[in-house]
Amino acid sequence: MSFPQNTGHAAPFPRLSILLHWVMAALIIVMLFVGLFMAHNSTVHYASLFTLHRTVGFLLLLLVIVRLINRFTNHTPPLPNDLPAPMKLAAHLSHILLYGFMLALPLVGWAMLSAGGYPITLWGGCHIPSLMGFHPHLWGELRCLHSLLAYGLILLILAHIGAALLHGIIRRDGIMGSMLGR
Amino acid sequence: MAHSPRKGSPARWAAVVLPPLCLGGLMAWTAGVFSPAAISPSHFMQRFQKAGALDRGFRRAHAKGMCATGWFDPTPEGRALSRSGIFKGEHLPVMGRFSLAPPLPYLPDNPAAARSLAMQIRSSTGDDWRMALVDAPLQVMRDIADAFAFFKTARLDPATNKPDPAAIRAYAAQRPWLKTAFEQAKSHKQASDLTNDTYNSLDSFILTDEAGKKTPVRWAAVAQEPFSPAEGSSANDKNYLFKRLVQTLDQRPLRWDIVATIAREGDPINDPSQPWDEADQKVTVGTVTFTKAYSEDESPCGPMVFDPTILPDGISTSDDPLLALRSSVYMKSYATRSAEHKTPSMVTPGDITHPTLTPDGKGQ
Ligand code: HEM
Ligand code: HEM
Ligand code: HEM
């Protein structure tokens, strides 16, 4: 498939990829707000927010696994041919990083609470097994890593949204449409 | 060229740049970047720091402590109140930590400091019950705003290296709802030792039985040792309370009854500053027996967090706003201290093996 001269058209992503992209985008943005709020504000509903954070975090871990399987088995449209090479590279690198952060954040969350000796219970009472024994020093390091990863993901997402809008509004090269199913 | 990047109008560029900027700004706002006065775990940490907490691996509150291990034996009355695996009848391991409440890890033992007992009881089926109890009769704060203001009064005056008594008086005077709590604190008779002291949860919890019936309770660990009052600062030894605890444990096990005070109609469940009816039923749900002492530098209870919201099925938090607050602030303290390099605790392993008191010429 190629759309040599005709701008404004790139092949769309498969439906499942699009669905996963937008559902996860919404959930991740909610998770970032919930995480930031509960870690920096002591006044409102800490316990419920934390339960929500754990539950949606594990849901996202499942979703990212499904998404990675889909990424490697389902077809992914190529970026437009006329996209300059450095932009292509930036796009690919940033997508790899986004996947990496999406996978690492819930895993680090799980590992840190396990190392800290916290039982992990999800909304509805489901218990998640601990990944390891009691390692308080590791808990301290992983808790810090969870924040750093979250801040990194925030920067990546902001750049990613900016890039998507650049493609959609300034370049109008069809990349935005490829994730909107057009 | 098919299409080089078009020179967009400023409006188009704004549509590219503003959404991510706004989202980023909103996230920064959520993280409290623009509200430095907000009540947050890090601001609690700052208040503890000003009250003498050290960034050398110690808890930001209840910093001086010592560990003990032993057993928990539940009673049938406990089993009737809660379906938790803790009360099924098994003899369960307990890890405890005795501490002085101030944020000062090198505070010399003295009769004035509040004392505390934290415990973790675990069942073979994975139930995990953590408690953090103090020997005060009532909490001198009723909500999050009170807690934030209260810890401000604990700030050490650089001139005297002690909290300013005027600050706590002003705190109390501005809060008529804490009148009873302060009166009871004043008339509270301090015990001579850690061994014969009674420690309270102050916050309320909800027990759920097999049939789903809920019972709101407050906990107390009531010493089986007879009470005797503290008389002045009798001992010369800076660790006399902890050493006397070790000496006693070397001679015999020490027991505390875990007593649930059951709320009646009208007892405030969500306000630890208010007393409950004197005539409330008290039920002993089990007994903790401590047999062995450890320095916190050689026991997992040292690094451990005794977050009172870590509870097994069958015990849950009440809607007391201080419980959720404690969970978030303990986590912050726990994460911060766990990543620090810890200096030795004041109660050393040597104090455990040789709990000999420094003589003070008064027959001690
Ligand atoms: C809310 C605003 C968002 C917009 C407008 C947006 C837009 C897009 C667009 C247009 C693409 C297609 C790029 C291409 O053709 O290769 C894309 C891909 C992608 N997006 Fe987003 N996105 C958003 C949020 C997110 C979030 C929050 C994440 C996750 C953290 C994310 C992760 C990804 C990934 C990993 C890809 C690469 C897909 C692949 O090639 O496998 N996006 N996004
Ligand atoms: C995609 C998944 C996740 C995202 C995007 C995320 C994001 C965040 C963010 C932004 C914070 C605040 C960090 C700070 O400012 O210090 C945070 C804190 C936290 N997260 Fe996550 N997280 C995720 C998954 C998880 C999971 C699965 C768990 C646990 C099972 C978890 C446990 C925590 C904990 C314990 C905190 C600290 C809360 C506090 O300090 O009070 N997270 N997370
Ligand atoms: C009902 C009221 C409270 C009781 C009975 C209580 C009791 C205790 C006890 C016994 C400990 C020592 C635990 C141990 O040995 O590890 C402790 C630790 C601590 N308390 Fe409280 N506390 C209460 C309220 C609060 C409040 C309102 C705050 C502040 C918001 C607070 C902040 C802390 C902190 C920061 C620690 C150290 C946590 C750690 O690093 O593990 N406490 N508390």
Automatic annotation (TrEMBL), chain A:
Keyword DNA repair among UniProt keywords: no
Gene3D superfamilies: Transmembrane di-heme cytochromes, Chain C
Location of this chain's protein in the cell: Cell membrane
Positions of the Cytochrome b561 bacterial/Ni-hydrogenase domain: 13-181
CC cofactor: heme b
InterPro entries: Cyt_b561_bac/Ni-Hgenase, Cytochrome_b561_oxidase, Di-haem_cyt_TM
Keyword match Transmembrane: yes
Alphabetic keyword roster: Cell membrane, Electron transport, Heme, Iron, Membrane, Metal-binding, Transmembrane, Transmembrane helix, Transport
Membrane topology according to the record: Multi-pass membrane protein
Residues annotated as transmembrane: 20-39, 51-69, 89-113, 120-138, 150-170
PANTHER family: BLL0291 PROTEIN, CYTOCHROME B561
Family from the record: Belongs to the cytochrome b561 family.
Official protein name in the record: Cytochrome b
From TrEMBL, chain B:
One Pfam family linked to the record: Catalase
Keywords assigned by UniProt, alphabetized: Heme, Iron, Metal-binding, Oxidoreductase, Peroxidase
KW Nucleotide-binding (keyword) present: no
Reported cofactor(s): heme
Keyword Ribosomal protein appears in the UniProt entry: no
InterPro entries for this protein: Catalase, Catalase_core, Catalase_sf, Catalase_SrpA-type_pred
Disordered, as annotated region: 340-364
Assigned EC number: 1.11.1.-
PROSITE patterns from the UniProt entry: CATALASE_3 (PS51402)
Domain Catalase core: 59-338
Role description: Has an organic peroxide-dependent peroxidase activity.
Entry's family note: Belongs to the catalase family.
PANTHER family for this protein: CATALASE
Name the UniProt record assigns to this protein: Catalase-related peroxidase
